[in-house]
Amino acid sequence: MPLVALKEILTKAQRGHYAVGGFNFNGYEDAQGIVNAAVAVNSPIILMASQRACQYIGLHQSVGLISGMAKSVDVPVCLFLDHATDMTFIREAIKAGFTAVMVDASAEEYETNIRISKEVVSFARNYNCSIEAELGKIGGKEEYVVVEDRAVTFTEPSDVPRFVEETGIDALAVAFGSAHGYYKSEPKLDFDRLEAILKVTDCPLVLHGGSGIPVRDVQKCIAMGLVKVNVGTELKAIFSSTLRRMCAQLPESQIEPKKYMQPVKDAVAASVKEILIALGSENKA
Q1: Residue of 102, 100, 101 whose CA lies nearest to 78
Q2: Which residues neighbour 215 within 8 Å (Cβ) at sequence distance 6 or greater?
Q3: SS3 category, 239
Q4: Which residue from 169, 215, 248, 251 has the highest number of Cβ atoms inside 10 Å of its Cβ?
Q5: Contacts with 233 (C-beta within 8 Å, 6 or more apart), sequence order
Q6: Res. 225 pLDDT band, cuts 50 70 90
């Protein structure tokens, strides 16, 4: 089927009380592994590319790659530009065919974040594209976006209603204890803060930095009402470790690339399947 907008996927998730996984990809193998996992468990899926990944693969090539995969399967597939800060690049991605974009103006002051996010929403309305924004500052490193521990700012529930109303966003990434990249210790999520945010908005909420958070905590967030969980670091680690293992196992005389890359695709698919089942999106396609 054609690529679908994020809003369509998350609206159904809200009604069904489950979450959908947003998974970062960096090329064909991990992208196909993610889609294969979604098909295997009959789940909707969100494939996310960072600005840097798009620059590596190619913007239109990314759209062609994921659009081709979507058309070959019967589960909803959304193509998502993750943590985008360059307004020109955002517009190019929307026009190219991305069906969701996260505009990340979280480093700016509240009023500026509203203005920038609103501008992107207004532009995207002419296309089949949903917009996610971030309120508060989620820690860690995500490509071009780096937030040191001392700069982390949790989302203030009182800031949410006006932000959502004035921007018109379709999803909101909230900061309540998660972080991008590897955790130095088990993360401590502020569930009371999440509950307070959920009480003041109907906007679909997103958990960033899903890699490394205990499943029980993720599922508690979902039970409370959160509907999108982002995973990136875990898949990067699986991709690289599997490729290293295959290079060590296969003889130097083996020059068939598929012998090295098929296990990567399969390993990514196995991990994503487990996550989708944990999120409750199995058989929700």
Answers
A1: 100
A2: 278
A3: helix
A4: 169
A5: 180, 181, 182, 211, 212
A6: very high
What CA–CA distance (Å, rounded) separates 118 from 44? 27
Burial annotation 181-205 (CB, 10 A radius, 16+ → b, else e): bebeeebebbeebbebbbeebebbb
List the structure tokens of 274.
């487990």
- Is residue 28 within 8 A of residue 236, CB to CB? The reply is no
- Could you confirm whether 82 is annotated as catalytic? yes
Residue of 82, 159, 192, 202 marked catalytic:
82
**Residue 102: both structure tokens together:** 């996260």
Question: CB-based contacts of 72: which residues, under 8 Å, 6+ apart?
Answer: none
The pLDDT tens digits of the residues spanning 154-196 come to: 999 999 999 999 999 999 999 998 775 565 656 789 999 999 9
Q: Output phi, psi for 103, to 5 deg.
A: -90, 120
**How far is it, in rounded angstroms, from Cα 42 to Cα 261?**
24
- Average confidence score pLDDT of the chain: 93
Of 143, 162, 119, 157, whose CA–CA distance to 208 is shortest?
A: 143
d(CA 87, CA 120): 8
The domains of the chain are located at: 6-279
Helix or strand (DSSP H, E) at 140: strand 140-142
- Structural contact between residues 231 and 211, judged by C-beta atoms closer than 8 angstroms: yes
Angle subtended at Cα 79 by Cα 105 and Cα 156, rounded to the nearest 5 degrees: 30
Which CATH class, in words, describes the domain spanning 6-279?
alpha beta
Instruction: Tell me what pLDDT residue 36 has.
Output: 98
